[in-house]
Amino acid sequence: MNLSPKKIVKQLIYVLFISLAVPFLLGFLNFLHPLFDSYSHFRIHLLLVLIPTMFLLAFFHELKNLLIYLLLIMLASLYLYYLNQPFKPKPIEHDKNSTLKHIQFNLRYDNPKMDSVVAYLKESQADVITLQEVTKEHQKKLEALKEEHYLVEFSERYPHLAWRKGAYPYQAYCEFYPRIGAVAILSKHPFNEESSTCLQGEGLIWSQIMVKKKPINIVSIHTRWPYPSSQAEQIQKIKPIFKDIKSPSIIAGDFNAASWSHTVKEIEEASNTKVIEGLRWSISLEKQLPLLPNFKLAIDHVLISNEFQVANIFVEKNLGSDHLPIVSELRY
Which residue in 40, 65, 141, 154 has its CB near the most CB atoms, within 10 A? Predict the structure, then answer.
């Protein structure tokens, strides 16, 4: 049977539509299988191609079906708009008069700009920093930030000897993958050693810091990709630790998962925290996908317990990693 050029084009657009719509819809069933959770991470990207594909299909149909496609296009566009909402600050409650600045950053194991990273962290004045992919070479650079030393300072009358504390004297590291590196926490404030855990090989470290004698639990986390990697099994291994981590708490890291993923929802439920709202493109996949320039994902997150309110959260400048630092300013 001979097909006209118009019918061939229509069939090709149908194939494209189905190949996009199936993973998009399966992404909403991400609780059934890790493969579907992987699909859900690309929800925005699939919509960006699905919407124009449905426009093309609409022109090949009569008025009745055309209206159905236009309705689907409208619903898809509204959902895309909803997913793309940035962080919107809310009024801070009067009793939230303490401030905590936090930085979340996946260094990347082969980061060539560690001197710039160290200088940035030192200048940031952040209270606490959560890091991932910290290699032994990275750790040597970062440990310079905890050095305490004496220096000579000059006043108007005479020089005197002063004692200067390191920018981040309290540091904790927990090995994940030997080649990829550890998860880590750097803090200006002292650790409560009795409330800390390293889940070696599982990408989680928990340390309780004491801020003005008040305990705050900090978790740095790095999860694997859902499928074909073993993120689901990893989550089941780390979930029990959250029974011991009481509020107030901050959980931050490279989740390799979108904020609406099943993985993030599982951690939210286990830890009694919520991901800070707003879309933040935190990783560029130019090295992994060179044929797709500017392809980004939003897979780095900060989860907080309800003691905290967010004054601001934003993505910082490039510091040699494929990930970007995420800076949050919290009130409690």
Answer: 40
d(CA 39, CA 260): 11
Closest listed residue to residue 47, CA positions, set 89, 77, 26, 68: 77
Tokens of 254: 């490279």
Q: Is residue 91 part of a domain?
A: no
Here the tokens at position 3 are 């097909």
Do residues 231 and 239 make contact, with C-beta atoms less than 8 angstroms apart? no
Same domain, 24 and 154: no
Distance separating alpha carbons of residues 274 and 209, to the nearest angstrom? 20
DSSP structure class, residue 224: P
Helix axis angle, 43-58 relative to 63-83, nearest 10°? 160
- Given a cut of 60, is residue 80 above it in pLDDT? yes
Q: Does residue 271 sit within a domain?
A: yes
Task: Please report which helix (H) or strand (E) contains residue 205, including its range.
Answer: strand 204-211
Query: Are residues 73 and 168 both part of a single domain?
Result: no
The predicted-structure confidence for 203-256, as pLDDT tens digits, reads as follows 999 999 999 889 999 999 999 999 999 999 999 999 999 999 989 999 999 999
The model's pTM = 0.89
Q: Within the chain, where are the H helices?
A: 5-26, 34-40, 43-58, 63-83, 114-124, 136-143, 231-238, 262-271
Closest by Cα among 168, 217, 212, 222 to 197: 217
Residue 251's closest CA among 239, 268, 232?
268
